[in-house]
Fold AAA domain protein.
Amino acid sequence: MTKQNPKSLRSVTAEDLLNRTFRPRFDVLSPWLRSEESAVLWAASGVGKTMLSLSIALAVAGGGRVGPWNAPKPLKVLYVDGEMNLQDVRDRVELLVGTDGILGTPEEQSQALSNLTITARQDQTVGKAFYDLTNLDSQNCLLDRVRRGKINLLVLDNLTTLTDDLEDENASVAFKKVQDFFLNLKRLGVATILVHHSNKGGKQMRGSSALETTFEVIIGLKKPSIARPGQASFVLEFGKYRAQGDHSLDTQTWTLDGGRWVTSAHLPDDPAENPFFKALKSGRYVSHAEIGRALGVNRSTALRRVNAICAMGHLSRAEVNELFRRAKDLRELDETPDDDLEEEELEDHLW
């Protein structure tokens, strides 16, 4: 392929830039994915990344919702799967559309089923060439299909199975062709989600740091400390997000319960990282309500978070009550004139 002559590159003055009218961008999945943006969703094998990706694809296609996120309107979605048996894909779609958790009305279900197109490697005849994001001819074929199909969201599942010639995912030079492909999708106004694997430890995304620079959004799924056999369950964390979000982007535990995603606040395994644990230990708060006000939540939420700390065995309820009592004693101590206290009395109140 002949490289473009740099002399022919388009430039614009600052004045012309301010006067230019741009194609309006719109929410594909609020609040974190808009048209012309790309995201990578990574996890270890078996954590639930394909189930979440299919849920997002169905929600966007039908104008539905996934957990706390919503798709404002039905859009055209193309889902490209590089490894899963099509029957397994069918079973997952059947589960997800079988309840009102993602698609709340018959109209949304109908829209989703007609707007979502799935192209799977295992559905092709033996020897049939499949999409390869490292091959320019294959890229152009997929770009043409996206253009002709007026696709709004492209989901690619996954990087390893859709890059036949990418021998080393850690090599930034080798990833350059893939980067160019995602830039072309942005020029077409298409939103893209790339599904990817974690490294061997399951704590980081696999591959070159060049991969991170390509995407506006990076989402990691990690195994929860308490496994839920037979259910897709993970801790979802945004590692990168360029726009303004809301509390739905907080680190949360996600669990698929009968086709419906249930989210709950994630409590770190290490209590020292838990803001509610730290608030209890600070000696500054005498009640759940005070902790809630300090951390920006209501009393009921603070109570649930503290109860969760107890359930994880980090503190007993008796210890929580004792911490509140000591905080009250310290507060009363602070309100006592210093001259009225001997040094030994002060030491008796410290813990």
